[in-house]
Design brief:
This protein has 404 residues and is of the alpha/beta class. The protein is 43% helix and 17% strand. It is globular. The C terminus is likely disordered.
């Protein structure tokens, strides 16, 4: 019997992937200057990053990076198992744990590896199960698949659905994993309800708060703190340092015994190159600024208010979110793509999400706000979206294919 031809399989998979793409080819970003970016040689105002607090190019963060490079070189190189731990790693972990009010933190070179490590180490026996929101980030979903545990997905934001999934998988150790703020629409998980579900079903609750840390809660302590929860309720939190903190890598914070076990046994931690000391120094300085600068969070609240008020005034299809991620719903992928490409011609860069990934069958135009934006830019963006929407309805807006 002939084996499947891998080249034919690749062609099929590529055709399927192309149908999920947001339209135009991936565009090269050149020079960045705050929220201004060069995209394929054109200067645009970007509304599609994750630098929510505007720290990625803040001079203190850049200086910390440059100073560390001068002292330590470009790259630390070695994995922790081969002596790659640096004093700066320990400093970042200690300050993060103290800031967020957890016993311990552990630094990874990416959030993907951090999520993989958590599930690979804890869900390691036959029959173990992980219940997840159906719109969780792919790193959480992939982590379950790669751990070998059973994946049980529940409807978006549905705590009762999570309860049912865990009840139907009553044998084996259990984890309940969720994003705190979801990256498509910026909506928030019902963390207090999920805490009760985890307690009733004897499951460990793990929260990825990449889009909440630095932005939400008192002092930017994130979604778990904003919900009035602590380590006893959420034993493990994961968050990337390349969102609101404008840096690189990721941290896992939480229960001391769990973190010690991760540090001693997690292969994605032990055998991946450690984050370079220079990038660690930059993230440490960014974290200190995020803790101190409440004005950045206050500015975001103002800009979210401007966006949502203006969108409601134009009758745009807003999603239910009060975070810097703001999405607008459109019936088809083609409408969202055409609108985004027309905005790009007008000097504004936004993202799109295909209907197949949103959970409700509608496409999205996705806007991400930064403390570096000013209200006039946000108002101009919403006005431009409304004009393009009207052009779609009137049939005067060029289709995506004509603009590609």
């Amino acid at each position: 019997m002939a084996r499947p031809d891998l080249f034919e399989r690749i062609q099929t998979l590529r055709a399927s992937a192309d149908s999920l793409r947001s339209g135009a080819p991936v565009q090269a970003v050149g020079r960045r200057d705050g929220v201004r970016v060069d995209v394929d040689g054109h200067a645009l105002t970007s509304f599609r990053g994750s630098d929510y607090l505007g720290l990625a190019q803040q001079f203190g963060v850049v200086n910390a990076l440059q100073d560390a490079v001068a002292r330590e070189g470009v790259n630390g190189g070695a994995a922790p198992a081969a002596g790659g731990r640096h004093a700066l790693h320990q400093a970042l972990e200690s300050e993060a744990a103290e800031w967020l009010g957890h016993p311990r933190a552990l630094l990874f070179s990416s959030a993907y590896l951090a999520n993989l490590a958590v599930q690979q180490v804890l869900l390691c026996e036959d029959g173990d199960v992980c219940a997840q929101d159906q719109l969780n980030h792919p790193s959480l979903l992939d982590a379950t698949a790669l751990s070998g545990a059973r994946l049980r997905r529940y409807p978006h934001l549905d705590a009762e659905g999570a309860m049912r999934q865990l009840k139907h998988a009553a044998e084996g150790a259990a984890m309940l994993a969720t994003d705190a703020v979801f990256c498509i629409d910026g909506d928030s998980a019902p963390l207090r309800s999920l805490t009760l579900v985890a307690r009733m079903q004897e499951a460990l609750l793990c929260v990825d708060d990449t889009h909440g840390i630095g932005v939400l809660g008192e002092g930017g302590r994130g979604s778990v703190s904003a919900a009035g929860l602590g380590t006893a309720d959420v034993p493990l939190q994961v968050f990337a340092l390349d969102a609101a903190l404008g840096g690189s890598g990721a941290l896992v914070v939480g229960d001391a015994a769990l973190l010690a076990h991760l540090a001693a046994t997690a292969r994605p931690y032990l055998y991946s190159p450690a984050l370079s000391p220079a990038l660690t120094a930059a993230s440490l300085e960014a974290m200190r600024l995020a803790r101190r600068d409440d004005w950045r969070r206050e500015k975001l609240v103002e800009l979210v208010g401007v966006f949502r008020s203006a969108a409601r005034g134009h009758g745009l299809g807003l999603m239910a979110a009060e975070t810097p991620i703001q999405s607008l719903s459109f019936a088809t992928d083609q409408q969202a793509i055409a609108l985004a490409q027309n905005l790009q011609q007008a000097g504004m860069w936004v993202g799109t999400v295909p209907a197949s990934l949103t959970g409700d069958g509608a496409a999205r135009v996705r806007v991400s706000l930064s403390a570096l934006h000013v209200p006039a830019q946000v108002q101009a963006l919403v006005d431009a979206i409304a004009r393009a929407r009207d052009g779609l309805h009137a049939g005067t807006l060029l289709p995506a294919a004509a603009l590609a």
